[in-house]
Amino acid sequence: CFYDNENYRIIGNRKEAEEPDVREDARILVELFTGTWCPNCPYVESALSRLKQEMGDKFYYLEYHFQDSFKTNHMDLLNYYKLPQSLPVSIIQGDTKIATGNQNSYSEYKYALEQKLNKEASVWFENFIYTVDNNSITFELDIKKEMTINSTFELRWALVDKETTVKNKAGDNCQNVVITKGSVNLTEESFTNGLTAVIDLPNYTFSKPSVTVWVQNVELPYNSETSVVY
Fold first, then answer.
1. In 35-86, which ranges are E strands?
2. How far is CA 24 from CA 31, 45, 95, 147, 199, in A?
3. Element (H, E) at 114
4. Which of 103, 122, 174, 184 makes the best surface tag, with the fewest CB within 10 Å?
């Protein structure tokens, strides 16, 4: 670079800069175990819905329903996390449990979420694409990481109905209800070549379908210090 007649000129070989990986702050995932018959669950459902509106894509929440008209069964997750079977109960980012539902739920969850915000993501997704036919959803994505993985890491997904016509005990429409879920084990190759997964469509009429995807270290037995969501 040199100065020539009141202008700066640059001489050299031209080389396109590589596009940097886009890594943002980690999102927070709340998994709530609930049911439309549950008298205290609406406190938590309302709190999470309000926080979602306030915080946008900084966090996501899922509702796993039991013994109601959704006819879903999520005992595998409830047992894995070693959670009590009295509802409502939730797990935040795979490591923080809240087992109450009352008028203080908004402030309790707000505080819990704020403790986990503004942390740089260790895993993030790029180039998410999907196709849908009468029987399944096929999605592809690239997974990036800034961490070491082991054989217990999984890509997990939940097919949800974001806005249902079913009402909870308080008369509010249930949101973000998990209708079916699944997972696939991750290897180092998954982070190099990308990943393709297929979700079989259940016998259910969706109002507003959506897929939530995350990476989790699913150790057996469950360990709150290591079996976390990334």
1. 59-65
2. 22, 27, 21, 15, 27
3. helix 105-114
4. 103
Report the SS3 class of residue 48.
helix
In sequence order, which residues have a C-beta less than 8 Å from that of residue 24 and are 6 or more positions away? 121, 124
Q: Could you tell me if 200 and 157 are in contact, meaning their C-beta atoms sit under 8 angstroms apart?
A: no
Q: Rounded to an integer, what distance in angstroms lies between the CA atom of residue 196 and that of residue 151?
A: 18
How far, in Å, CA of 41 to CA of 38, rounded?
6
Each residue of 57-69: b (16+ CB within 10 Å) or e? ebbbbbbbbbebe
Give tens-digit pLDDT for 54-80.
999 999 999 999 999 999 999 999 999
Give pTM, 2 decimals.
0.89
Q: Which helix (H) or strand (E) holds 110?
A: helix 105-114
